[in-house]
Design a protein that fits this description.
By secondary structure, the chain is α+β, with helices and mostly antiparallel strands. It is built from 15 helices and 13 strands.
Length: 439
């Protein structure tokens, strides 16, 4: 028995926790540089705002319909997500964090009324964090995710599904007739694992609802759509093909990239940016207990600035042995950057990616893919205490409290920082931005 817990309109809901005046108003959250709409309230969706729609295309709705746009505040959203996930984990023995706003819970062996447990979970998350959630239960992860969709739509669009399924929906307690009615009302494209390209192909075969999909011939669909479709259909029929993964496989590569608020033309500024990116990926690398065998750096101009000369180089620098030391990774990234930078270009984006990842501390019997021109790294273990201390200080006093010199922000306004003209305060992670209660 599985449950999917999902925060409704996560980014917008986080903003509304600290600004109740946004409730009932059309709100969108914008991407880096305030370029596109990456989250929408239900009211904004009703205005026709599409996911990832460029902001300039809907900006007129500020004046015409009272649309409110906010810059993304990922530090706030990440902290609120962590709080929600901690609360949800208390209700089941196993949890898989699927995304920033979703987690699967495995209720195998848990006694009691699951729908009641789901309502208790939802109430506690709402009380302790202010975040509204939807909870769906099913015999498989695909059914749980579909039940979550029903719970969310029954709440948002009354009449689409029976009202008793709103907010918390348990497919396990439905009769065969009730479940068939729900699946008959649900578009086939709403099934987890059926993408935007697959849904039209199924509809062309007159498979329009989830019920139609369940009644279709499995071998025929497997031949036409492959094994992924077969697993999806088996899950919809109650045969689990996906287990809860409470110990996710480590990432095979880690990347940090960002577009700039304004074009960058000088090497010192790019060194600062690349050093900051390398510092971030180094921290993530240590969090999963890995070391990097190579560092890749890229910088690029904008293809949309047609008057500019174009230059989008990249370089990969191997490390020998592999390392998770921030100093080593920053040094390699800066060395790679110096080799690809050319003056006279308007660079609008940069990135650092760690590749050839391997378990930290493993003795390298072979040099692997990247052997020639490798950058000598520090000894494998002596750096560990220093890096642990650095991570603990940054955890306690905030990101960037301790860093390498080249990553330190220079005095004055940052020319490369992303535009965040509409960002709300980071209420839960910065003492100087904490919400103040006034009598």
């Amino acid at each position: 028995m599985f449950a999917l817990v999902d925060v409704n309109n996560m980014y917008v809901s986080c903003e509304r926790v600290f600004r109740p005046a946004l409730n009932g108003r059309p709100v969108v959250v914008l991407s880096s540089n305030d370029g596109a709409c990456i989250a929408r309230s239900n009211e904004a969706k009703d205005l026709g705002v599409r996911m990832a729609q460029p902001w300039f295309e809907v900006r007129h709705l500020e004046r015409e319909a009272g649309l409110i746009a906010l810059s993304a505040n990922f530090e706030l959203y990440g902290d609120m997500s962590s709080r929600m996930m901690t609360l949800a984990a208390e209700f089941a023995p196993r949890q898989e964090i699927y995304s920033i706003d979703e987690c699967f819970l495995d209720f195998d062996g848990v006694p009691g009324d699951l729908a009641a447990i789901g309502r208790d979970l939802r109430a506690k998350v709402l009380l302790w964090t202010g975040l509204p959630t939807s909870v769906g239960f099913g015999a498989t992860k695909t059914l749980a995710k579909l039940a979550n969709h029903v719970a969310k739509m029954a709440d948002r669009k009354p009449g689409r599904y029976p009202a008793q399924y709103a907010q918390v929906c348990n497919f396990l307690e439905l009769s065969t007739q009730q479940l068939g009615d729900v699946l008959g009302r649900t578009d086939v494209g709403d099934v987890w694992g059926i993408g935007r390209k697959t849904a039209p192909k199924l509809q062309a075969l007159d498979i329009r609802s989830v019920l139609d999909l369940l009644q279709a011939d499995l071998p025929t669909l497997r031949r036409q759509f492959g094994v992924v479709m077969e697993k999806t259909m088996l899950e919809l029929r109650g045969t689990p093909c996906r287990a809860v993964d409470d110990a996710p496989t480590p990432n095979q590569q880690i990347i940090c990239s960002r577009s700039f608020g304004a074009p960058v033309t000088d090497l010192p500024t790019l060194i600062e940016v690349v050093s900051q990116f390398a510092t971030q990926v180094a921290r993530k690398l240590r969090e999963q207990g890995s070391a990097a065998g190579a560092v890749q750096v890229f910088i690029t101009t904008s293809p949309y600035r047609r008057q500019d000369r174009q230059h989008s180089p990249s370089a990969t620098l191997p490390l020998r042995p592999a390392s998770s030391d921030t100093r080593v990774l920053v040094s390699a990234a800066v060395q790679a950057l110096r080799g690809i930078f050319r003056p006279g270009f308007n660079y609008v984006k940069a990135g650092v990616m760690l590749v050839d990842l391997q378990q930290e501390g493993r003795e390298q019997q072979e040099l692997g893919l990247f052997e020639s021109d490798a950058v000598p790294a520090a000894p494998a273990r002596p750096h560990a205490r220093l890096m642990n201390a650095m991570d603990e200080l940054n955890q306690r006093f905030g990101r960037g409290a301790v860093t390498v010199a080249s990553a330190a922000r220079r005095p004055g306004p940052s020319t490369h920082a992303s535009k965040q003209e509409r960002r709300s305060p980071r209420y839960t992670t910065r003492l100087d931005e904490i919400a103040m209660a006034r009598a």
